[in-house]
Design goal:
The protein is mainly β. It has two helices and twelve strands. It is 10% helix and 26% strand. It has a twelve-stranded mixed beta sheet with strand order 1-2-3-4-5-6-7-8-9-10-12-11, with helices on one face. This is Glutamate synthase.
């Protein structure tokens, strides 16, 4: 590791991911630049302080997992489970993300400037996810809370078995999953879309999006289910 007055540079050609994450868990600096990541897994996992981490290159599985307050940018593509179980903070991917982006995340903002693969936002529990491109099938499966904004198209079975998360899609939707329906877009929804798009740096008009959510038919008790 090398340091300047403002930035600590970590070169993964000579430093292990274990050493990197140990430093980020007890940081001595406020800004880290990670060089030569070469698709390594679990980069910047478990950050729990408001530091800034710039990963200059592609990341493997579970980059920025469990983030709780950090501002982490992957300047490239990210593998499976980026920002998985994030609690707070900001994670940004300037390229594309593989499957299960933002899985089970409780809070914070995940921005994917490119497209995301299948199961984006699976079981999300309060996170906000903004995708600049398309998302794959089974996205927002069992999504419990939070907002998923898709500036492109959505794959099949969007929002299958969804609870109370809200989904906004600018493009087409291949099909909706069980208990997911299109809903009215009111001014309150356009206002939150405007805020989310601004935070993500996306230039789109909130009026171009459609809203989807739960029909609330699956998770309510009825006497007919007592047999």
């Amino acid at each position: 590791m090398t340091s300047t007055l403002e930035t600590t540079v970590v070169d993964l050609a000579t430093t292990s991911v274990r050493e990197l994450n140990a430093e980020l868990h007890a940081p001595k600096a406020t800004h880290y630049a990670v060089e030569h990541p070469q698709g390594a897994h679990a980069l910047a996992a478990g950050v729990a302080t408001p530091i800034t981490v710039d990963i200059h290159g592609h990341a493997g599985y579970y980059a920025a997992g469990m983030n709780d307050g950090g501002t982490i940018t992957v300047h490239g593509n990210a593998g499976t489970g980026v920002a998985e179980n994030m609690m707070s903070g900001l994670v940004r991917v300037t390229g594309d993300a593989s499957q299960s982006a933002g899985a089970t995340a409780h809070g914070g903002l995940l921005v994917i400037e490119g497209s995301a693969s299948m199961r984006c936002g699976i079981s999300m529990k309060g996170v906000d996810i903004v995708v600049g491109g398309d998302i794959g099938p089974m996205s927002a499966f069992m999504a419990q809370a939070g907002r998923l904004v898709v500036c492109g198209d959505a794959g099949a079975d969007l929002g299958d078995s969804i609870y109370e998360a809200r989904i906004y899609v600018r493009g087409s939707v291949a099909s909706l999953g069980a208990d997911c329906v299109e809903k009215e877009v009111r001014e309150e929804h356009r206002a939150e879309l405007r805020q989310l798009l601004a935070a993500a740096g996306m230039p789109h008009d909130p009026g171009e999006f459609r809203r989807y959510g739960s029909a609330r038919r699956l998770y309510h008790f009825t006497s007919g289910n007592t047999y």
